[in-house]
Write a structure and sequence with these properties.
This protein is α/β, with parallel strands linked by helices. The chain has 9 helices and 6 strands, in the order ααβαβααββαβαβαα. Strand 5, helix 7 and strand 6 form a beta-alpha-beta unit. Belongs to the uracil-DNA glycosylase (UDG) superfamily. UNG family.
């Protein structure tokens, strides 16, 4: 596995890359990609970092696993490639944006424009074997991405963390709440959303309000 990551992250994460767990993770990922179909493409594993530099990061959204269907994952949590049908969680994200901000439901499910505005779309696990959800969990990725969250918490100020669902909320312990803002709600998956734990959270307008309070440019959530 080649660690192809934006130069702004390298000085902060180089020590992590040199740790034994990360070297073991690298061997594991290389073997998986050699012997099985895995997602996202090797060149897109670190897309979350390559399209949102360390210096530009002002919002963090935490997912769990990449999508494991063919052609879906592109290295950004909840995002799919152009022309791919929107998975149910992404559908509910877009529905909430519709009601929160009044934007029309987008055709594209590619969240790259969000990343380029400073949103780190971070999955806890960056790779997965095709059609096997969770297949690359507990191999070292979580240790790496926890280190990323702690790095942002320690080295930056006034970042907004959006924690959606029980898994993401567990990351709260890694974040200094005296220096950053946290917005919590249920997961956008149908199981959670249909029970009333997602819709109406207004996280998108709240994020922009919080950015304005610290003189940061707001996010244009439209994808068209």
């Amino acid at each position: 596995m080649k660690v192809d990551i934006h130069p702004s992250w390298e000085p902060h994460l180089q020590a992590e890359f040199n740790k034994p767990y990360f070297k073991n993770l690298t061997y594991f990922v290389k073997a998986e990609y050699k012997n099985h179909e895995c997602f996202p493409k090797g060149s897109e594993i670190f897309n979350a970092f390559n399209h949102c530099s360390f210096d530009n990061t002002k919002v963090v959204i935490i997912g769990q696993d990449p999508y494991h269907g063919v052609g879906q994952a592109n290295g950004l949590c909840f995002s799919v490639n152009e022309g791919i049908p929107h998975p149910p969680s992404l559908v509910n994200i877009f529905k909430e944006i519709e009601t929160d901000l009044g934007f029309a439901y987008p055709k594209s499910g590619n969240l790259m424009p969000w990343a380029k505005q400073g949103i780190l779309l971070l999955n806890a696990t960056l790779t997965v074997r095709a059609h096997q959800a969770g297949s690359h969990q507990n191999k070292g990725w979580e240790q790496f991405t926890d280190a990323v969250i702690k790095l942002i918490s320690e080295k930056k100020q006034n970042v907004i963390f959006l924690l959606w669902g029980g898994f993401a909320k567990k990351k709260k312990k890694l974040i200094d709440i005296s220096s950053h803002s946290i917005l919590e709600t249920g997961h956008p998956s149908p199981l959670s959303a249909n029970r009333g734990y997602w819709f109406g959270n207004k996280h998108f307008s709240k994020t922009n309000y919080l950015l304005q309070q610290v003189d940061q440019s707001v996010i244009d959530w439209k994808l068209e």
